[in-house]
Description:
The structure holds 2 protein chains of 2 kinds.
Chain A: E1 5-7, E2 10-13, E3 19-24, E4 31-37, E5 44-50, E6 53-57, E7 64-68, E8 74-78, E9 87-94, E10 104-105, E11 109-113
Parallel strand pairs in A: 2-11
Antiparallel strand pairs in A: 1-3, 3-8, 4-5, 4-9, 5-6, 7-8, 9-10, 9-11
Chain B: E1 4-7, E2 10-14, E3 19-25, E4 32-38, E5 45-51, E6 56-59, E7 62-67, E8 72-77, E9 86-93, E10 99-101, E11 105-110
Parallel strand pairs in B: 2-11
Antiparallel strand pairs in B: 1-3, 3-8, 4-5, 4-9, 6-7, 7-8, 9-10, 9-11
Amino acid sequence: DSGVTQTPKHLITATGQRVTLRCSPRSGDLSVYWYQQSLDQGLQFLIQYYNGEERAKGNILERFSAQQFPDLHSELNLSSLELGDSALYFCASSVATGGSSPLHFGNGTRLTVT
Amino acid sequence: GENVEQHPSTLSVQEGDSAVIKCTYSDSASNYFPWYKQELGKRPQLIIDIRSNVGEKKDQRIAVTLNKTAKHFSLHITETQPEDSAVYFCAAMDSSYKLIFGSGTRLLVRP
């Protein structure tokens, strides 16, 4: 167990809908990263937060947004869902930002858009 | 931004043989290079990492080498076992704190 908690584990929804994915980092970790993994694909970096502030942004769609709350949990909001958004969404956390500490991944949320 | 290329995409070895996976990166300011193992349907798990001030690191059967001049790094697994079968990802953290992953190598260890 990595200590990173993601909910829900599975999510099935229809095109055009909006969903929220939640991540609780490991105790003591200040950084949260979000990644998207489509079927048999690599891990695409979406966004990173550090202590409540956005630190880095990848190729995140405008339909997607995220935030990190004062208690350090993070939420990823996906709206106007399309079939192509179906994927595994991983959250990872680390103690700090930069190269000083490794990332630990949660078990992911599997999103299916029908 | 950082770009990480990884090869081969698939690798099949006989149990007991060695496996080598290679990655190149583009951002010369990148300073942290982890390797993750992902089993089917599970989360990526860190197996070893190396920082830019070190050229090689070993942990039992696993070793990673880094050549900063050439901007490439490699994962070496010796005495492979069937349980080593998985997808392996290299990654590089660039100067803007993004951890960018390679496309993955599917390793199959034949008993």
